[in-house]
Amino acid sequence: MRFHFVGPDFFHWRASLLSTLRGGILFWITCSFIGQVQAQALSREKIDGWLKTLGASDKFDAAKGIDWGVMPGPFYTPELGLGIGTAVVGMYRPDPSDTVSQNSTLTLSGYASSTGAFGVSVKNYAFFAEDRWRVFLEGSLANTPTYYWGQGFAAADDDGNKEKYTAQVLTLRPTLYRQLVDNVYLGIGWSLAAQNADRLDQNDLPKIESTPQGPSVFSSGVSIDLSWDDRDFVPNPRKGQYANLRYTYYAPGLGSDTRFDEFHLHYSRYQALSEKSVLAWEADGVLTQGDVPWSMLPLLGSDERMRGYYQGRYRDKNVVSTQLEYRRQLTWRHGIVAWVGAGTMGPSVDELNNGRWLPTAGVGYRFEFKPRVNIRLDYGIGKGSSGFYFQVGEAF
Asked: What pLDDT score was predicted for residue 75?
């Protein structure tokens, strides 16, 4: 489930630093005491009983097939208005007798709001044949009022440069992995992204209409992955490393409007500091070349990386970022996290070294809905902006 609101440039960074830190500290303290407050109001047994009716058991039985759980909830943001969202989380084992593969997970989520915004998404991690085969799938469909600033830092810095529109987006990325040797996997996949910029504000500068592709863009390509992965549980690792190199080739012969290349480099490491605490670190980069449409430019800011920035404001042909996150399990199902990070972007790889980096920091609350599957609420602080994020699963 993905609900977030980021207010761009409503404070100057230096002037707002103290107030955002105060807000973050208050958010941290509130999260830390949620467990104690709930324990006083209701016993854990009563809450567990209520959660069990929603499928949120703290135990998993592979013999039952897919163990489903449902978590509904209302929300309100100035962007989306009043709405309701639901996350459906399923844990399963394709072969219950397979004790080598980790548990597979399937997450379905969606929301609808009074402004006409809606979104649905699916994420599946499936493990087969003693982890020799893996099938990963991500997809989404969304209709969201948003803004487009253009490409690069100069465009993003000018708030008067933005154009309001409604993003109608369909994405799908399935990948099949085969184990080569222990912890090493080769994957082949397909990437589809269709975006239409609807309801363009005629009072704003015509940015999207001026792009070579225009308001509607269709991108389709094949991908190949090579990865090292010894994480103990993909949705929420406590130990292990994950290194992945993905190359995606988009071309008209594959249904794409334009021809371009995308290289995605990723490395993350997870270190258990104690039975209840984990230190997680990642470095991530997306590099593109060719005729990259405006809708496929890598973004600096999302609910996974560079939290705290308006998604879609910072975009360019090349984006890199890093983050360090401390995760702490509290009593019962509760947990908290804190992170720091930074990112930059540029029209070419050489121009990534121009010295401008955007910072990010934040805190978050975790609720263990299924065994090691968390519902997360994060508050991210960026330079001149901040945002709340409500999502299923860890950011990375």
From this structure: 67
pTM above 0.90, yes or no: no
Q: Between these two residues, 205 and 135, which has the higher pLDDT value?
A: 135
d(CA 313, CA 226): 31
Find the mean pLDDT for residues 288-303: 96
User: Comparing C-alpha atoms, which of 201, 189, 204, 218 is closest to residue 293?
Assistant: 218
Q: Please answer whether residues 233 and 336 qualify as being in contact, where contact means their C-beta atoms are separated by less than 8 angstroms.
A: no
Cα(151)–Cα(346) distance, rounded to whole angstroms? 9
Angle subtended at Cα 73 by Cα 67 and Cα 6, rounded to the nearest 5 degrees: 115
Q: What is the pLDDT of residues 72-113, one digit of tens each?
A: 876 665 556 677 888 898 999 999 889 899 999 999 999 998
Task: Give domain limits for the chain.
Answer: 3-392
CA distance 148 to 217: 15
Q: Is 153 left (phi over 0), alpha (psi -120 to 50) or beta?
A: alpha
- Of 239, 265, 385, which Cα lies nearest the Cα of 321? 265
At 94, list the tokens. 């394709």
CATH number of 3-392: 2.40.160.50
State both tokens at 355: 């010295």
What is the C-alpha separation between 303 and 391, in angstroms, rounded? 8
> b/e map of 311-333 (b: 16 or more CB within 10 Å)?
bbbbbbbbbbbbbebebbbbeeb
pLDDT for residue 51: 75
Evaluate whether 106 touches 87 at the Cβ level (below 8 Å): no
Burial class (CB in 10 A: 0-12, 13-18, 19+), 46: exposed
> 51-68, pLDDT tens digit by residue?
777 777 777 877 778 988
Contact 164, 193 (CB under 8 A): no
Query: Rounded to an integer, what distance in angstroms lies between the CA atom of residue 268 and that of residue 281?
Result: 5
Task: Give CA–CA dist 55/167, Å, rounded.
Answer: 34
Encode pLDDT of 244-272 as tens digits.
Answer: 999 999 999 999 999 999 999 999 999 99
